[in-house]
Structure formats: C-alpha cells, structure tokens
Amino acid sequence: MDKTEKAIITEEEKEILLEIMNISFGKAAADLAEFIDIYIELSIPYIHVLEPRALSGYLKKEIKDNLDCSIVEQKYWGKFKGDALLVFSAISSRELLSLLDTEKDWGYCSDPIDVLEKESLMEVGNILIGACVGKIAEMLNDIVTYTPPKVIIETQPLDSFFNFQVEEDSSIILLRTAFKFKSTDISGFLFLITSNESVEWLKSALSEFMERS
C-alpha cells in the first residue's frame, strides 16, 4: 500500500473491507448462478485508491479490449454511495445472450439482436450489482437505492463514458473483481467506485463492523 492509500484507508480497514467484498461478491455470484444455473469463478478482489484524473486510464488499462466492450453502469445511493460498473467483452455479451435463452432462434426473432443483448446485460447487471452492493450495505448497516441501469455497447474510447463528476482534490476507493462463467468464454469485471463523500462514513462503518466481529 503506497502513502496515498495509507492516508485514505489503513491496512486494518483494507483487510476488513476485503473480507466484506469476498462475501458480497460471492453472494452476487451465487444469486446469478441460481438464475442461469452455471458456476461463476471469481478472482480474489482487491482495493485500489485513485485520484479522479487517474480513473479513466486505470479502467482502460484493466479493460484491455477497451474499444469493443459492453458496460452496465448503475449508481447506488445511501451512506455507501458510488458507481457500479459491470464490464463484458463484446464476445462475452453475445454469448451471454444465448446462455440466457438457448431455446430462441435468433435468426427469426422479431427484436434486433442489439436490443436483446442490452436486455440480457441489464438483467445480469441487476442481479450482480444489486446482490453485491446490497450485501456490502447490509453488512455495514446501511440501505441503498439504485438508479436504473444504463447499458453501453462501447465502440469509442472509454474517456467518453467514464466521465465521473468527482472533485479534483478527492480520492476514489475502487473495489474490483474479475469473474468467468465456467465452461464458457464469458468473462468480465465488476468495479465499485466509492464516492469521496462516502469515505469518512465507510471508515466509521468498518470500525463498527470490526467491533461487532
């Protein structure tokens, strides 16, 4: 952990937040697996502290195929507040479409493929993001609400999309995990971008969580 991270979140706070993330991401994966009957493999989550101007570059580096991906964005509001981003490669999002409804003959479907693709992404996004963020909030004694998810089939540089309104002198706590659907080519990332105004509450909530544990 570098000096910037230490100033925002201590090693002890980071460890307990990682524990909460593991439980929450696991809950999200289990909820989705129940919905589509497939096992989801999760990477070990990690936490990264960033300055706002570094966020776009960081995300583009993480998402190597950054000109051809599908993104579900959903904002969450409560004491725990921020942005959730669910990112799939374009190939993954098309395969996800067939996985959600293998009985349809897409060649004769009345809806355009891009509409169906967005609907499937929105469905998966609602489950993964809602379960993950909701579990984090529950464990930290908070209640969150959500904006409707926004789906982007991205074909332009990500600077046009990742344009978060964050104060320049603030810092972002970013929670990240990668996932893969077993026996498929479907993989992606889930990012939770915690707003600066949530940081003080988060530190206090983590302290209370440690006292209860």
Describe the structure.
- The chain is globular and about 45 Å long.
- The longest helix has 27 residues, at 113-139.
- The two termini are 24 Å apart.
- Residues 102-113 have low confidence and may be disordered.
- Strand 3 (69-77) and strand 4 (82-89) form a beta hairpin.
- The chain has helices at 3-8, 11-36, 52-62, 90-100, 113-139, 199-212, and strands at 40-42, 46-50, 69-77, 82-89, 145-146, 150-154, 172-181, 187-194.
- Helices cover 45% and strands 23% of the residues.
- Strands 1, 2, 3, 4, 5, 6, 7 and 8 form an eight-stranded antiparallel beta sheet that branches.
- The chain has six helices and eight strands.
- The chain is an alpha+beta fold.
State which percent range the strand residues make up. Answer: 15-25%
CATH class: Alpha Beta
Structural class: alpha+beta
Describe the global form: globular
Question: Features of this protein?
Answer:
213 residues; alpha+beta; Chemotaxis protein chec; 8 strands; 45% helix; globular
What is the fold's blueprint, element by element?
Blueprint: H1 3-8, H2 11-36, E1 40-42, E2 46-50, H3 52-62, E3 69-77, E4 82-89, H4 90-100, H5 113-139, E5 145-146, E6 150-154, E7 172-181, E8 187-194, H6 199-212
Antiparallel strand pairs: 1-7, 2-7, 3-4, 3-5, 3-6, 4-8, 7-8
In short:
The chain has 213 residues and is α+β, with helices and mostly antiparallel strands. It is built from six helices and eight strands; from the N terminus they run ααββαββααββββα. Strands 1, 2, 3, 4, 5, 6, 7 and 8 form an eight-stranded antiparallel sheet that branches.
